[in-house]
Amino acid sequence: MTSTTRETSGRPYEECGVVGIWGAPDAAALAALGLHALQHRGQEAAGIVTHDGERFWQHKGLGLVGDVFSDARMMGTLKGKSAIGHNRYATTGGTLLRNVQPLYADFEFGGLAVAHNGNLTNAATLRRALVKRGCLFQSTTDTEVFVHLIAISLYATVLERLVDAAKQVKGAYSVVALTPDFLIGLRDPLGVRPLILGRVADGGWMLASETCALDIVGAEFVRNVEPGEMVIIDDEGIRSLRPFGKTSPRFCVFEYIYFARPDSILEDHSVYEARKQIGVELARESGVEADVIVPVPDSGVPSAMGYAAESGIPFEMGIIRNHYVGRTFIEPTDQIRNLGVRMKHSANAPALRGKRVVLVDDSIVRGTTSRKIVDMVRAAGATEVHMRISSPPTRHPCFYGIDTPEESQLLAATHSVAQMAEAIGVDSLAFISFDGLYRALGHDDRADAEGRYCDACFTGDYPIELVDKEGHLVS
Ligand code: SF4
């Protein structure tokens, strides 16, 4: 990913959610519902490919899942008991239909559909080499690199070719792939991006980025796909391959702080509980005299609840979020960014007037959104505004599937905490410490969590080699 600046709300965005279904009637409907539950992971496009035992069917479109899959007649064309689906958040190259996943290709061994969440850090390097060998790319997605690697592999079976391709790519990814004979789920060796396995009611199987996608269809959580594991699901059940040997997990800690839905369970931790506990730790570390604790909705809510409970200061919904703000028409100009914040958040003045307010938010990226929210809260009559952030300062871009601005655009990369406080106009500003963050995730302290998570956007310690940092392509 080139860290271009697609963000319109001043927050980093997740890029993509995936689902896979095997052996379930109405596989397309289950996949669509799963994608709907994963809508927070990508809002620009969605796609589903199914297989009915004889042939593949597909439908893709730009927009939200509910719009792309709203036509009952079209849904009826997505036949079969197996499906994979994808929600896309594009970072570069614009939102083009040809980039919308899953990608489908016909090989000498038959058809294959593939979708992935995350970014390959050597996609540009591999792509250049593949183009030199005569491969003709149809899209700018990293997923197509996988497709071409499979196509040129000298191995005989699709599984061997997939393993061969997986061994050549570097990056953070969760892949779902569908053939006429099986469904595949693959997590990168460090398991940076999530992928979970569930059982649907009538005996079928489901893969998804988060457990909230299982919940929406009443599927039962079975287990996480392990880092570096390839699961192969067919009518006989599940097999597991370990193409990379033994690996050490480095799960993305930002999934807990911001990206995942709070009702999801990731790597056996409740996202909601983790966020609440971060709020508790924040209150212990950086408590301040105040009258109300106010979350910046939505992701700041659980941490604000934890902060309020620990501090004994009342929790108030002093900011109301409008959930019906469309994104497609908000172009990222400065003028529209200003407008966007007011469209998305409004101050609930009676809860703020004459009060000393602690605002709890999940992160500060550029600082522009924070500044506007603080100004809005003051304009509503708050006498003091203190900001508490449930992540450490975001000082580095993510190259593993999250759209963040380049380093020079990150407020924390160029400002001290005191300077940041001045820039966003608060009376005080504090971030959760690494010890506090990892205590909230069940560890004794930072040292106890050492080497278990990716926290590169806070530390700059990138656990996966950034082979082609420049010119990286879209997931
Ligand atoms: S750099 Fe940050 S956002 Fe990206 S994978 Fe690592 S922790 Fe997650």
From TrEMBL:
Binds 1 Mg(2+) ion per subunit. Binds 1 [4Fe-4S] cluster per subunit. Mg(2+) binds at S299, D361, D362. Residues 16-236 form the Glutamine amidotransferase type-2 domain. Keywords: 4Fe-4S, Glutamine amidotransferase, Glycosyltransferase, Iron, Iron-sulfur, Magnesium, Metal-binding, Purine biosynthesis, Transferase. The active site is at C16. SUPFAM superfamilies: N-terminal nucleophile aminohydrolases (Ntn hydrolases), PRTase-like. The keyword ATP-binding does not apply. It is an enzyme of class 2 (transferase). In the C-terminal section; belongs to the purine/pyrimidine phosphoribosyltransferase family. This is Amidophosphoribosyltransferase. It comes from Swaminathania salitolerans. The lineage of its organism: Bacteria, Pseudomonadati, Pseudomonadota, Alphaproteobacteria, Acetobacterales.
